[in-house]
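seq:
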Amino acid sequence: MPSIGCRLKQGLTMETSKGYNMRFEPLGQKMFTRRNWLLRCSILINVAVLLYIGSHVMIGGGNNFTSGGGFLLQEQQQQQQPAASALQLPPFLPQQQQPTPKNVNSEASFAEEKLVVAGTGNANSEPAAAAAPPSAAIGDSGGGNLPEAGQVVGNIGVVGSSSSATELNNTQSDGYIVTGDEKELDERVRSLLNCYERDYDQQTLQRGDFWVLQNYVRAEHGELKCHESITYTTHADYTFLDNLVPLLERWNAPISIAMHAPGTDFQPTLDSIKYLRDCVPGNQLVRAFATFHIYFGTKHIPKSVPKAQDALKTGYNCSLPAPYFNVSSGHLYKAQKKLLYPVNVGRNIARDSALTHFILASDIELYPNPGLVKKFLEMIARNEQYLRRKAPRVFPLSIFEVDENSPVPHDKTELQEFLRNGKAIPFHKRVCASCHGVPKSKEWMAANETDELSVFHIGKRTGYYVHWEPIYIGTHADPHYDERLSWEGKSDKMTQGYSLCVLDYEFHILDNAFLVHKPGIKVLKKDNRRAMLAGKTNQLIRKIIYPELKIMYGMRKGCAI
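struct:
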């Protein structure tokens, strides 16, 4: 009878004293099984590592693709609106309409960024805020993490590829352009924006109850590249066209202006355009930069409307006075027919027709400080950290009024002198101070002018500023103005401001940029008709527009119309 040891070597079954059967494998076979198991595990681990590395390579490629196409998606959203879940949209396009948690105190975090860099260490100190150099390099805060190279850069633009990002990093020092070369500036802005080119066609369109002659009289700048400049977009009837040349002398860049010209107002409007292009000192600026669109209601079509190519065939007799000279609004067809001025229709027409990515939607009587366009694009090219925050943003300008006999200040230093001697005041201070009160305005006015344009403070349209009507440099992605609202009914920008608030926009207030109203300080005047129309407008907003906005954009604590 073989021993137990022999039986184990042979791999036989052993019956224990308790009746259990135990199977013993030969020693060599057991070691072979273990090696086989280890080999299989090793193969699985290697496959897992390879899949992990491959997934990171694919993700990196995908992000670069998204970055390169981000702004194209943003600017084509009205033509092709992809599902938010299907494509990664740039951060300035909300991926959902429901409100998201607000960034942790973005105003305080931005102030802290600037103060830490300045070495003051006190985020609540007013003198420190004024002393902090606006163009200092600003560190990141809890309000927004910096993206990696090649990722979306805020709602300013994108770096199209990692190689572009490397090129940009190699040409800047502490966030500033090294050479100052104009071509380099152009290339840097172009690569950051990667924006969508727009056509410059002359078209006859219908927009709700209005006919629109888009690009009816075109500026001679031709088809601008979208990154090359900023377009000042505005609206008017022909009685306001005396402001155009003073505006252009300071802006010196493209202007898109929508002219309301119903009925018999059409011909003097066209004559005024001819006069400005042919007769006035500064007419070369008008020819070079001003593009005119004309619109009128479908029930108030002029008797004759020349084709765009024929509109300027007959020049204006320059021995005659300007058609808009000494003409009051009471002489307008609009006044005689008791029409309301469709201010937001004009704003949207001018804005939608702008060729550039950046637009300043403003009023024709508001004059910017000279040199603003170039300095703003230089700021974009520097692409400092506060421009890379992930929240959507616009760039508001502080607004002022000067007395009737004062010139319009050219720079902030001159403006500060006007404020000290009482020749200038904040805009609408005596009409509606809260409507144009700018966050940190006292600190802004106290801070010294610098050579660079930068962001002085990041604010929100909440709290005391819940009814703020900012005028700002933005993009085509920003919400439109509600075209049901009129100038006479007031509150025409309030609903758009509410939309910005609900979408959690940041307001990057520019330090050395401002607007000044045509000389003459406004005071509150009693107007029974406007008061009646304002009451009707408030009802329209409360009962119809506000409920619509809540459905379309959602709600956010602290936002109000």
